[in-house]
Amino acid sequence: MIPNARLRSAIDNVYAAFEDYPQPMQLDASPLRDKAELRAIEVRPRGSLGTTDLCNYASWAMTTVGDVEQYKYFLPRILELATESGLIEPEVIALKLEYAAWRSWPPREKTAVEELFRGTFAQALTEHPDNFDAVSWFCGMAILGFDLGGLLRAWDATNNSAATLQLAQLIRTLAFPGKEASERGYWESVPDDVEKELLNWLTSQHTRLRLRVAKGIANPSDIWILERAAEMLEQVNQRPG
Fold this sequence. Notes:
- With 241 residues, the chain is mainly alpha-helical.
- It folds into two domains: 1-106, no CATH class; 125-241, no CATH class.
- It has 13 helices and no strands.
- The protein has helices at residues 5-17, 35-43, 51-60, 68-84, 90-99, 107-124, 134-143, 148-157, 161-174, 181-184, 192-202, 205-217, 223-237.
- Helix 1 packs antiparallel against helix 6 (107-124) and helix 9 crosses helix 12 (205-217).
- It is elongated.
């Protein structure tokens, strides 16, 4: 995804917020980790690192490689790369931030991270799900404890076909009845009360109406997404209790 002005500003602000953290000279790591791969990110400038360079580190950070301050050095580049594709998953970033107790970080750092998540999500709602996944960023923000009501109001206010298709993708990801824990993926890390509020919104008359209206004007290749989401909502509504 090519960042718009809001997202580009958010990316720049993340770099500025974490500019004082030095490049690690050596990352302490579990013997199970690839030392050559880690050495490659130790010796190269942060801005030159690509998704393939940082994808594994983004998953390993702090638990089996390095510490919080070292993660903060790489975090701006990890976040920037995550806005470009889905190879570095925002849910993984969210779980790492929670592990690092990010709510205790200095206000400038917290605000920069929050605005990048919000900016990416806002732009993703203008993108077709085949091009960029808004749902992953939404799940990441749910993990991080963002105000769910505010996020849902933003989704409602973005009344375009792309946002409705992203909504259908969310339903297909979350609302299928009888899902086992192993099928729930990162939603397992979202608090139960948040997920309940989300399901109430998804199964509302407003959401069902939005899907029906979108189906009438959607591209033929997208109608199946809307139909499948509507079917899944009906299954959820028919569940006992």
